[in-house]
Here is the input.
Amino acid sequence: MTNFIITLAGHSLPISARYADTARCFPAPDPDAPLAAIPPIALSDADWEESLRLGMPDNAHTEYSTLTANCSDALLAFDCVILHAAALRWQDRAWLIVAPSGVGKSTQTKTLQELLPGQVTVICGDRPVLVRRGSEIWVHPSPWNGKEDWHGAEAAPLGGLILLKRGAENRLYALNEQEAILPLYAAFIQTYATTETVAQVAAFEDALLRAVPTWLLVSNTVPDSTRCLVDGIFSSSELQGS
Amino acid sequence: MKYQPRPGIVKTQICGRTVLIPARQAFDACKTVQILPMLWAGTWNAICKGCSREEILTAHRILAKNKTEEERAAQLDKFLQSMCDKGFLIAEPEETAE
Here is the structure.
């Protein structure tokens, strides 16, 4: 096993990896971040066998990717969790586009940047870290940036959630908290290993849905659906300067 | 029959709604997340206490006041069967006193 440290949202976490090369998938840790007093995070044999059963190759990149869920579980102790979403920054706020893989998070991100040149940057392309601070949720970068490796913008307080799905129309709907519960819960990265962590993720979702507004973007064609986002959220005068 | 939640099923509240979520322990039988309608959230508490169908029906009678006895019983049986089919509940035959 190879032991190393990674830093997520200001917390340095000890990792114990099967592959020496797994450490190279992560950026250098922040020397100023306090080291969490927790046992090293490692994949169990069951975690590893499940990844291989799903057809992932037996290599360091698979370990780096699979470790996300174990890191997310460990972060729950610090009021943090990892979400499967594209995290954008606009007007000093973070905006999350939430959808399963292949639905179009990256396409919406790229098109938003084209429609709003110079205004939208990416905090994390695939799995940002969310942090609960009082009644606010902050969105932080992570080492898991997706196939495009989009990242770079600084952490920001969350402005809103956009649940994305494909459909026969291009339309943006405002959702109430209850309507968002099921699709959003599926986006939290976790191992589901214990009832305690499952309940902690649910409590985080409760805080998240109460903190910010949620929309559903139904997308048939791009850029038409992205224009719904621009017209409905990213040009709203009441949000500007918030 | 007696009913009990499958081990590994977490009952919690999200934004005022009662939600059932399976942990890994329950994955072989259940992998979906379920929002319980308010009526059934109260009935679920009786189920969690390990009550028999008749005891659950008594609890349900208090919650579903505007139904006839037959309607309530049919409604409850449909709910219990649905929750067993989805893997949230385990049904066991009641022991009979000989």
Chain A has two domains: 2-78, 80-240. Chain A touches chain B through 20 residues (CB under 8 Å). The domain at 80-240 of chain A is CATH 3.90.228.20 (Phosphoenolpyruvate Carboxykinase; domain 3). The longest helix of chain A spans residues 195-211.
